[in-house]
Amino acid sequence: MGRGDGSGRLVSRPGADDSGTGILHVDMDAFYAAVEVLHDPSLRGLPLIIGAPDGRSVVSSASYEARRFGVRSAMPVSQALRLCPTARVVPPDFTRYRAVSEQVMGIFESITPMVEPLSIDEAFLDVRGVRRLWGSPGEIAVLIRQRVQDEVGITCSVGVAATKHVAKMASTISKPDGMLIVPAARTQEFLDPRPVGAMWGVGPKAAEALQRRGIRLIRDVRESPPEALERALGPALGQRIQELAVGRDGRAIETERIEKSIGHEETFDRDIEDRDLLRSELLRLADRVGARLRTSSWQAGAVAIKIRFADFSTLSRSVSLSEATDVGQRIGETAVALFEQIDRHEPVRLVGVRAERLRESGLGALALWDDDEEQRRLEGTLDDARARFGVGMITRARHVGRGAPGPAPRSGGEH
After folding, report:
1. Fewer Cβ close by (within 10 Å): the C or N end of the chain?
2. Catalytic amino acids?
3. Which is nearest to 48 in space by CA: 3, 8, 11, 93?
4. 24 vs 26: CA distance, rounded Å
5. Distance of CA 184 to CAs 17, 37, 140, 332, Å?
6. How far is residue 377 from each of residues 228, 292, 362, 397, measured CA to CA in Å?
7. CATH 3.40.50.1000 fits 192-255, yes or no
8. pLDDT digits over 30-66, tens only?
9. What is the reported pTM?
């Protein structure tokens, strides 16, 4: 299969068989880096790291030139620069990325109303109902790639298949700037030789649990006794992964829009200089965000923080998560990591935490292995206790005695 640096990619020849298909997964190539090149063409061809230019920052994205040195998203910038010392570090501009994303999504929606955005730079499209307008699914994929290139100036990769799961796998394998069509009749032929880690939703720990039992390829999943998969992943997930391994995936395109973010922020009565106290406040706000996500049955695909200083200047930082979550602890750890990217040490009058790129719980990638399961159970117990005794009566021990002076925190609401 294709890897993150673009090596090992597979693409379809022009006019390839697309019989029985109708689902497209379109993914922009190294989106943040591509938008920066669009803004500053002198960056083209250079190894780019998108992140704050200090050692504590994490990589938001990287160009393929940098990925070939082993640079990956969520890696500390300091580590990325050790791997690729010649890389150019470019601060992220999320306003610019959102604007370009809206252009791209507009192209998708001009072709079919059946568009399901997964994130700022990828979406599923169901094109079965627009064949008379635009041609076969393969022809539509070619059209989309050409329009994104001509009208926006960046490249995308497209997977064409009969199901969302296979289309997502196909687009990944074809990156960058490629298209891979998997006709329905050849779905099993496509799936069988792929490693289990190539399945959409199978993370490293799930893949490791399967590999320990000799289940290394999707063919092995298909041929394994159900009990073996149940022992590795549990009954429900074991059954589900076996269905995907034989090409069954009944998930439809979800076009319903949900709220864009949930946030909480707090303005202090007096400015705060104690960074440990500010970290504690970020963790507490993250717990509240996580509780609201769980109540609403949503998960966050990205986390953002807002810091307002005594002079009213305001900074924000944002990062995508490798897996969507509704767990306050993980949101809090991410928020604190973002806070560490900020070099300014002046007094702070406001802090805020926001969950972004929301999706309904259970949608998107399958949670075949849940690293947050134990923490989610704990936070669910806290939710029940707060509902019974009141929000102000139940808190984590780490927050006791650390409350910052000021009024009750102000909800940032949904935006």
Report:
1. C
2. 122
3. 93
4. 6
5. 10, 37, 17, 43
6. 26, 15, 16, 17
7. no
8. 999 999 999 999 999 999 999 877 656 788 899 999 9
9. 0.68
